[in-house]
Amino acid sequence: MNEAIIFDLDGVIVSTDHYHYRAWKEIADREHVPFDEERNGLLRGVSREKSLEILLELAPRTYSAEEKKQLAEEKNKIYRQLLQELTPADILPGVLTWIDEAKEKGLRIAIGSSSKNTDFILERIGLSDTFDAVVTGADVEHSKPAPDIFLLAAERLGAGPEQCWVIEDAPAGIVAAKAAGMKTIGVGEFVQNSGADRWALTLGEAKL
Ligand code: G6P
Ligand code: MG
Prior knowledge:
Number of helices: 8
Strand order of the largest sheet: 3-2-1-4-5-6
Structural class: alpha/beta
Helix content: 25-40%
Low-confidence stretches: none
Number of strands: 6
Largest sheet: 6 strands, parallel
Bound molecules: 6-O-phosphono-alpha-D-glucopyranose, magnesium ion
Order of helices and strands: EHHHHHEHEHEHEE
Shape: globular
Mean pLDDT: 96
CATH architecture of the largest domain: 3-Layer(aba) Sandwich
């Protein structure tokens, strides 16, 4: 029996790709690092720190740990400013129906996101009190593709990994869910060939 659903946040509940892109692009331009939408795709689902490592792979010079910490903080400042634009109207199609149906069926639901801005985003879109558990990159040492975020979400829901479905838009998230021993629904073009148990272009078209 299916007991629980764990939703990724960015790209599943709400699309923040473009905000991340605008913020990273500002940092990249300032540091003379080539960066475009395609490279931004490599940052999907992974932590802020790992994202910076990937961005700086093309940098003309090396950076100290202290400089990296500062760049990550600056990026987040710009990103948080942009997130002010989010409203409940930005909730992606199909999300509210999934939540309502899960609740009708008595399934427990959680958010499992790498983002340390999860609480702020949920607040902006009016879903702060919707989920039975919210686990973020701030709660674990190892972010996706490690399974830790999803395992902690299952624990907080009181469900075993085999009872959980994970909904993800990023390859790193599918890897994390599989490593956790959970079933996966891939949503969107970036996970079409990532080995998810089920796949749909949008959450509105996906079925449990
Ligand atoms: C999500 C996004 C990633 C982002 C990560 C950390 O998983 O898909 O692109 O790097 O969260 O986000 P944060 O809000 O903590 O910087
Ligand atoms: Mg995502």
